[in-house]
Amino acid sequence: MRRLFALLFLASTLAAVEPERGMLVEHVATMADGAQTYTLYLPTAYDAKRKHPLLFVFDPRGRGSQAAEIFRDGAEEFGWIVISSNGTRSDDDGEPNDRAVRALLPEVKRYSVDTRRVYAAGFSGTAIMAWGVGVRNGVLAGVIGVGGRLVDVLPPSRFSFAHYGFAGETDFNNREMRLIDAMLTESGKVPHRFESFAGAHEWITPARALKALEWFEVLATKEERGAYESDVGFAAALERAGKLPEALRRYREIVRTFDGIAPIDAARSALARLEVDPATQAALRDEAKWDAFEAQFIREVVAAVPRIYAAARQEGMALTPSHIAQQLRISELKRRARRTGAESLAARRLLEAIYGQTAIRLPEQLVARKEYTFAAATLGVAADIHRDRWFPWYRLSEVYAQAGQAKRAREALEQARARGYRDVK
Q: Into how many domains does the chain fold?
């Protein structure tokens, strides 16, 4: 009995200890499920006597601290709480992510949270996860979706939350993220905006995260706080850089966001000018043309990849990297990628999509079938697409090792080392 009282006293004492403010606190166990942990950030200004916005962060590899670091500056600037899960995964759209969400959502009761201002952020598959939490649970005021893709069961018409979308210019999901934003414009139900950035399929930077949180602050408080001038400056920079469709969309977003909050004559004037500008209209037509090319290529070429292997199995062929590359029209895409404008971006996005398939997904499937020769040929395509990356060569060394080809495994590992692989262990 005395031991039980001691344990209860210890538990109550621990519960009364508040986490450190202004620093990342790792491996915090959830109240609902001790196996589910997260990294916590309480801003320096955190005060248990007043309510604070809260951001759930869903990293696609469950890297709670790394993902929380992205949002740390914005959370400190605006007084937000961050809870960044260690249990979320991009490729798990079933029980593992459901379990993480069930454990995380009750954590809003653990801190002084404004329950009208609970947000989520996700990247790649966990952007889709964040949309699902917003649609199905109805608890989110906004979502930061980075590099996600359109899914039939979560159409943008069902979004009941503000949405800030991001994608790298060469992210294979960039076109779909722009499509999601266009659908949100068509539905007209919620505030939204989209931003492309120089990069591929990757998380946003802390600076972009801060701007996203600032936007949510404007929506929630109806206070401009200097954000309008910053936004107009960003749109003007896009225009000067010749990114006319992006500039046009940004001015539209500025007018939507700040109408009634700040004097927006400059933004309205710029928007009206770009809407009738011949160069902008030509750029929009070119963007639409190469978006259509990208979508058709995915339907007709990328989606047909399994047929390459099925035919080889049926005919008893020994696949080579050159044969697979020919079927995937790699040379054509590389040629288009060297050009400029929307054509180059579409080709580069397609090469990224094929790289993802040939470096990760297809080899995993082929190794599971013990088709090591097919897997090695597939990785050869990935290594050719990005000749400076070590990952395809490292993966190739694993495939050769599994196939019992020690010499080739060592040679491939040496190629990975030459390209920067340094994990000695």
A: 2
